[in-house]
UniProtKB/TrEMBL annotation:
GO terms for biological process: DNA-templated transcription; nucleotide-excision repair; regulation of transcription by RNA polymerase II. This is General transcription and DNA repair factor IIH. Component of the general transcription and DNA repair factor IIH (TFIIH) core complex, which is involved in general and transcription-coupled nucleotide excision repair (NER) of damaged DNA and, when complexed to TFIIK, in RNA transcription by RNA polymerase II. Residues 22-36 have a biased composition (Basic and acidic residues). Residues 406-426 form the C2H2-type domain. Residues 1-36 are annotated as: Disordered. GO terms for molecular function: zinc ion binding.
Amino acid sequence: MAIDSDSDMDDAGLRSKKSKGKAAEKKRDKGKAKETAETLAYTWEASYTRSWDTVQEDESGSLQGAVEDWVVRARRKRLLAPSAAIRRTIIRHLVLLLDLSSAMVDRDMRPTRFDLMLQYAREFIVEWFDQNPLGQIGVVGMRAGVGERICEMTGNPQDVLKSISERHRLEPQGEPSLQNAIEMARSSMSHLPTHSSREIVLIFGSLTTCDPGDIHDTLDTCVRQKIRVSVVALAAEMKICREFCDRTGGQFGVALNEGHFRDILFELVPPPAQRGGGGSGTVGGAGGAPSADLMMMGFPTRLPDTAPPSLCACHGELRSAGFLCPRCMSKVCDVPTDCDVCGMMIVSSPHLARSYHHLFPVRPYAAMGTADRGARVACYACARAFPTAPAGNTSEGMSPVGRYRCPECKCDFCSECDVFIHDVVHACPGCGR
């Protein structure tokens, strides 16, 4: 009996030691898991890890010069693109297709694909109307296998921004339908004249599409009607999206991160170049140059806020301020727009001038390697003195002496004025071209 009791006690001791060992292992595993969760960053934070390695201190220990150099270098790369005499359409009609499927709730782009898409879409609309004041934008959403018209095509940016500002109306759900959305966008542009461009910009985050018919028939129709389709993909490249862009002459890009998403989206802000020649089904045929028809425009008379209230033709409301159509003298609220009474396009001279600069862009300034004898010691535009000592890094078209010369008037400008002239002013202060 004693032996049996001793054996039972030994077995109990072994079991207790094993249980203690397992508990200790569980504690260690929990500690490791907790440590891993604390040390590892989320997927959408990966691009922000060790961001301090991208910049270096200068001789004075400041990071300001390195950051400015990095920003200016990225802008200079865009400004030094080859420029040639190309034909562009200044009257644009664009339909923005937004993916509102369940794939947009993924958090690989912070905070979510959906929130980031709405933020960049608002910025894109503001910049697009600033560069293309004579154009119009419509918004169509894709969710639950159908296309939803979010905003009718209009030339008022406030109406477009208001349509996508109510987030609860755009909650993602279901699967997207690429064919239904493109058909809805195409039908809204079928009545447009030949002198205006027809464009579709698609922000697509799903890897599937739920189409009721053959989507290649829709592609052939877009090619025949010369509708240019551009796609910004957030997940991966889909063959049908690439085929739409290739055959219609649009642009295709897959966003690698948040910054790249914004870059490829804002590349669609300038008017696309019109390509000539080619038959249907090719890039040249899809983007072939339309006939050079003359169109009639009217410059309205602006009414002040102190004018007597009168009914506007666009909303049927009593308003004091507004614009009078030069043909039928009807009142409209905003310009540019088409008169609801006589149908004439009403524009203002600043809008026409802002659209015109795309046809004759400012030629890129040449980066000077050294300062010529007798050259100005300060920038021609802002009068800030040029640096006396040349910089060490001169890659990617950067001038070591901070001078950028206009090829027409031979005036020297600093890097900040060079970027400001090409992005905002669109005219050289020296020669006026």
